[in-house]
Structures are given as C-alpha cells and as structure tokens.
Specification:
Largest sheet: none
CATH topology: Four Helix Bundle (Hemerythrin (Met), subunit A)
Strand content: under 5%
Number of helices: 6
Low-confidence stretches: none
Number of domains: 1
CATH class: Mainly Alpha
Radius of gyration: 17 Å
Mean pLDDT: 90
Number of strands: 0
C-alpha cells in the first residue's frame, strides 16, 4: 500500500473512532441522567446536536464520495446499499430521539443509535475500506472529496 493510501486510510479510521467516541459520550450522558432520575433534556440536546451537526453530515458526505466508488464494483453493491439503508435508519432514529416524550423511549432510542452506528462502522472499516485498498481505489482523493463536501456544506441531503 502506498504511503498516501496508508495515511488516508488512517485518517478515515481515526475520524471514525472520534465519531464513535463522541457518540458514546453523548449517549452515556443520556443514560446516566435517566439512571439518576435527572432530566435528560441537556443530554438529549447535546446528542441531537452532535448527530445533526457531525454524524449525519458525515454519512451524507460518504454517500456522495466513498459509496459511489464502491458501488461501481458489483461485488460491493449490496454492501453499499445496506450501508445506505443504515444511514436512513440512523436518520429515522435521530428523528425519534428528537420527539421522544418519555425517558424510556429516549434511552432506548439513544442506545439503538449507538448500537447501529457501531455495527455500521465495523462494516465500513473492516469490509468496505479494505476492499478499496484491494481494488486500488484512490483513497486520498476520496478523503479529499469527503472533506470538501463537509467543508462546503454540500453534504446536505
């Protein structure tokens, strides 16, 4: 693997890890508030903001940069479609999180989001990205495209 590809792969993996850590922290705040009988609204607001400002834009940018490159490979098409379905499921659960009327629903939805994202990241990191490497996809270019979409707000669905 070329140095540029190795650096791009590491940058992607590091960003995914940072997203997962932030999500874990935000969900933990919601769960902790509910467990302690404290109003979970601050935790919900922080989680919803993170999801709307960071995680969902990241997913949308991937759909415009990484996923088209993968979908061009017939062996990856089903994986990409499943991952897009997971993005839709995440977005739906974010909507549910925002409208949850009780702590039980809020906690359950936050936990669902965390679990779904963990499985999604595993697929992307362990299956999709290695397939890119194997196929010789230009990861630095895809990473640049993703950053460009996020920086210029072109990730919006």
């Amino acid at each position: 693997m070329a140095h540029g590809d190795r650096s791009a792969l590491q940058a992607i993996l590091d960003h995914h890890a940072a997203l997962a850590r932030e999500l874990d922290e935000r969900v933990a705040q919601v769960l902790s508030a509910a467990r302690e009988g404290v109003d979970p609204e601050l935790g919900r607001a922080a989680l919803t903001t993170f999801l709307a400002d960071e995680l969902l834009p990241h997913a949308a940018a991937e759909e415009q940069s990484l996923y088209p490159a993968a979908a061009a490979d017939p062996t990856l098409e089903s994986l990409v479609l499943a991952m897009i379905d997971e993005h839709r499921a995440l977005a739906h659960r974010v909507d549910q999180l925002d409208t949850a009327l009780d702590s039980t629903t809020l906690v359950a939805t936050a936990a669902e989001i965390r679990a779904l994202f963990a499985v999604h990241l595993h697929k992307e990191n362990e299956y999709l990205l290695p397939a890119f490497i194997h196929a010789g996809v230009d990861l630095p270019a895809l990473l640049h495209d993703t950053h460009h979409l996020l920086a210029h707000g072109q990730h919006v669905r």
